[in-house]
Amino acid sequence: MARTLAPEDVRVGDYVSLLYVVRELPAVFFCDDWQGLAPDEMLRFRTLPEMAGEPLKVQAVCLPFVLVKRANGERRPLDLRRVQVARLDRNYAKTARKLSKRKSKPSSYF
To answer: Which of 12, 53, 60, 82 has its CA 20 to 30 A from that of 33?
Structure first.
């Protein structure tokens, strides 16, 4: 079972996956007077990433940033203020990485 991680619990060598991404947009994008919010006030909401469930191996940690490696060798930084990650079971992660090495493609969000 995947376990949600607090940023301070992320360790080098962990296999993690994105659970959700936090997005921010100005209230003005939704309506002129949306629930009494000022137009310049930011609204935060969570979205599901395209790559949810894809195992990422943690290469380095410097909170709030984490450097991860995809199965295809691509390395990307994650900002843990913008994403929620979960630790994956090692057996699941290794099996899924082997399978995804064959068909990995660039992701629109990391």
So the answer is: 82
Band of residue 31 on the pLDDT scale cut at 50, 70, 90: low
How would you class 18 by CB atoms within 10 Å of its CB: exposed for 0-12, middle for 13-18, buried for 19 or more? Answer: buried
pTM exceeds 0.85, yes or no: no
C-alpha distances in Å from residue 109, one per residue of 8, 22, 39, 40: 23, 11, 27, 25
Cα-based distances in Å from 33 to 26, 37, 39: 12, 6, 7
- Domain 3-21+51-101, architecture per CATH: Roll (2.30)
Please give the pLDDT value at position 59.
98
CB contact set of 43 (below 8 Å; sequence gap of 6+): 24, 25, 26, 27, 30, 34, 37
Q: Categorize the per-residue pLDDT at 18 as very low, low, confident or very high, splitting at 50, 70 and 90.
A: very high
The full set of domain ranges for the chain reads: 3-21+51-101
- Write down the residue that tokens 């979205």 correspond to: 47
